[in-house]
Write a structure and sequence with these properties.
It is built from 25 helices and four strands. By secondary structure, the protein is mainly alpha-helical. Strands 1-2 form a two-stranded parallel sheet. Strands 3-4 form a two-stranded antiparallel sheet. Strand 3 and strand 4 (about 590-595) form a beta hairpin. Helix 6 crosses helix 19 (about 390-395).
Length: about 600
């Protein structure tokens, strides 16, 4: 029946994965519309259990993932090409860097640029534990340390691990662009069976809900900006209109593909974001901001080792539940989408280039981005009239960016640009997600029917609109809780990713044998050598006075080393006994022949 429906709709995909994913998503929307309270309580209980019992698992797990990636990149497997051995990168470094933000993190950077430093400045995460006064200089350092922790190396680790795994199995082993392909070392050809399809359906559903949270937050921020500029209300039809316009543009971009659609939008947006940042830097306290970027980079580096494993164990304030654990659990829910998208644009790069680029470049940009916005906020609050933090706390995080821009020249223009940036990041998130979802269902990267590709973009926009408007705050909260619950299995899959990736690399690149080195004879002082010459069991067959090595043990391509000229006592012993040390290089070390 599914195959007939598939053919009737003129699709070219896996009927089971496509229709199975669509049924779950539609079923969730219908149930949420019918009984929003019951669904909210059900998934709220699940997310609450995760907060209470598995916070330590998330905190330690992301740090373990980070260590694994650095280890792989620094080791001999770091030279492996993600593709054929002779492949070169398909995109320039600048275009590649811009498209990294197309996968959804751009919207998050815009949303939290001012909001998170403001919240932590007003309510320091470890205020009671460390005795930090709110809205103090110590609170500013605490706020920036936690903000950079949340959006720096650890967030990009959650994206980089599946990205590396996907890139390896898709382009090195030429497997389908599906989550099930990562299990090929364990499942073999069963990745095409029921187990593999179940994994892929779950991955598609989790990705949709994870991205939908970002879309919901982005819609709220666009509405807040338009409300400040044009005075529009928060009526349901305004949210629907915003999502409809963005969805239409995202659908067109998705149909055009990566090179014509996403790449151009990404390059435009990243340059526009940089220009906005430069404007804030130039019209604000420039030197103060530059000093803040450098200082907060040091704050991040200083706090990172502690925060990487900090669980709020002794104080147990519950602060981490709504911040760090929520971030990690939510991010991992849509990590398969980001991972496959990053893999798709990274073909031809080495493992080392991939890890250094995906972890290093965005983290450096994040430090500069939050450093400038955060320092500007602290200047307003500590050295100016203040008020931005109060606005954020009173009116919500979605208006934080625009309250900040109101303190700078050309506020209307910069706010308009900020709305456009959020919108375009919104668009690139949706269209790149639709391309990835299509690949995950199809199992190939060929040209799919355009209406099939557009289906995912329209579906994401429709789901976000229904949940955000028909159920109000309850719908968005339910969406967040679903993303958290669905993210748990994917977090566990991270450990399977590490195992399967390591196993595949060993199988493809081979194990490292013993490293052959030049073998040296035992060197004795001249007086000890003379004593042993007179002893019957002096054991001088492998001894010399001048340091020397066994001929024939030098490794291939090793530089020549001249043999040392031995003093007369050594030559005398060798003539008298006939013992000349030789070695068979094919034998284990320590196996010698005397002649």
């Amino acid at each position: 029946m599914l195959q007939r429906l598939h053919d009737l709709m003129r699709l070219r995909t896996s009927p089971i994965v496509f229709f199975g994913s669509a049924a779950i998503v539609i079923g969730f929307v219908i149930l949420t519309l019918i009984m929003p309270t019951g669904m909210g309580e059900f998934f709220g209980a699940g997310s609450g259990w995760i907060y209470d019992h598995l916070g330590w698992f998330y905190i330690s797990g992301v740090t373990i993932f980070l260590i694994f990636l650095v280890y792989k990149a620094a080791g001999r497997f770091g030279r492996i090409k993600l593709g054929n051995d002779g492949d070169e990168p398909e995109h320039s470094d600048l275009a590649w860097f811009g498209m990294l933000f197309a996968a959804g993190i751009g919207t998050i950077l815009m949303f939290w640029a001012v909001a998170e430093p403001a919240y932590h400045f007003a309510e320091p995460p470890r205020g009671a534990q460390e005795g930090i006064e709110p809205r103090s200089m110590e609170a500013a350092n605490e706020a920036m340390g936690f903000t950079l922790y949340h959006f720096g190396l650890h967030t990009w680790t959650i994206f980089a691990l599946p990205g590396l795994a996907f890139a390896y199995f898709i382009y090195k082993r030429n497997l389908p662009p599906r989550v099930s392909s990562i299990f090929q070392p364990m499942l073999g050809d069963k990745i095409h069976g029921p187990a593999g399809k179940a994994i892929d359906i779950f991955a598609v559903v989790g990705t949709i809900f994870g991205v939908a949270v970002s879309i919901g937050l982005g819609t709220l921020q666009i509405q807040a900006g338009l409300a400040r500029l044009l005075g529009i209300s928060d009526a349901a039809w305004n949210f629907i209109l915003i999502i409809a316009v963005v969805t239409l543009i995202a659908t067109i971009s998705a149909v055009l593909g990566v090179d014509k659609g996403i790449k151009r939008l990404s390059n435009f947006n990243i340059w526009t974001a940089i220009l906005l940042l430069i404007f804030i830097l130039a019209t604000g306290p420039t030197v103060f901001m530059l000093r803040g970027v450098v200082e907060f980079a040091g704050t991040y580096a200083t706090m990172l080792p502690e925060l990487a494993l900090w669980n709020d164990t002794l104080s147990n304030t519950g602060w981490q539940d709504s911040w760090t654990i929520f971030y990690w659990a939510w991010t991992v829910a849509w990590a398969p989408f980001v991972g496959i998208f990053i893999a798709r644009i990274s073909r031809g790069r080495s493992v080392r280039q991939f890890v250094a680029g995906v972890l290093g470049l965005p983290t450096l940009f994040t430090i500069i981005w939050f450093g400038i916005w955060g320092t500007g906020l602290f200047d307003i609050e500590l050295n100016g009239d203040g008020g931005v933090v109060d606005t954020v706390l009173d009116q919500g995080v979605e208006g934080a960016l625009f309250a900040f821009l109101a303190e700078f020249p050309l506020a209307t223009l910069t706010s308009s640009i900020a709305i456009m940036l959020v919108g375009i990041f919104f668009i690139t998130s949706m269209d790149s997600c639709s391309l990835v979802l299509d690949d995950m269902c199809n199992g190939y990267e060929g040209k799919a029917p355009l209406h099939q590709r557009a289906f995912w973009t329209i579906s994401i926009g429709l789901i976000a609109a229904v949940l955000l408007t028909a159920t109000g705050e309850g719908g968005l909260e339910a969406l967040q809780n679903v993303a958290l619950v669905l993210g748990l299995p994917f977090f566990i899959l991270g450990y399977f990713m590490m195992y399967n990736l390591s196993r595949a690399m060993r199988e493809d690149a081979g194990e490292v044998g013993f490293l052959r080195t030049r073998r040296w004879l035992r060197t004795l002082p001249p007086e000890e050598y003379e004593r042993r010459m007179e002893e019957p069991d002096g054991s001088l067959s492998e001894a010399v006075v001048a340091p020397d090595y066994h001929e024939g043990t030098q490794p291939e391509n090793a530089p020549d080393v001249d043999h040392a000229e031995q003093p007369p006592i050594v030559e005398e012993y060798r003539v008298r006994t006939g013992d000349v040390p030789t070695v068979d290089p094919t034998q284990p070390e320590g196996t010698y022949n005397n002649r």
